[in-house]
């Protein structure tokens, strides 16, 4: 089976496993966890240890800002 997370076009997906990190992100954007965009648990790019309700940080390359960081809430 192919590991899609290792493909050069797939951005880095990092699980925020520290609750304090999640709270900092939510406070920075002044949102609730449920307001974050969603990503399915079955998405092949997310870390294997991600559970429903976790937050994933996605770091994409960007021509204008070098890196673009977005956050997603894992759903079933």
From TrEMBL:
GO molecular function: DNA binding; DNA-directed RNA polymerase activity
Signal peptide: none
Biological process (GO), any one: transcription by RNA polymerase II
Keyword Heme: no
Primary residence: cytoplasm
GO CC, alphabetical: cytoplasm; DNA-directed RNA polymerase complex
InterPro entries associated with the record: Arch_Rpo5/euc_Rpb5 (IPR014381), RNA_pol_subH/Rpb5_C (IPR000783), RPB5-like_sf (IPR035913)
UniProt xrefs under HAMAP family: RNApol_Rpo5_RPB5
Function: DNA-dependent RNA polymerase (RNAP) catalyzes the transcription of DNA into RNA using the four ribonucleoside triphosphates as substrates.
Subunit structure: Part of the RNA polymerase complex.
Family in the record: Belongs to the archaeal Rpo5/eukaryotic RPB5 RNA polymerase subunit family.
Protein name in the entry: DNA-directed RNA polymerase subunit Rpo5
Gene: rpo5
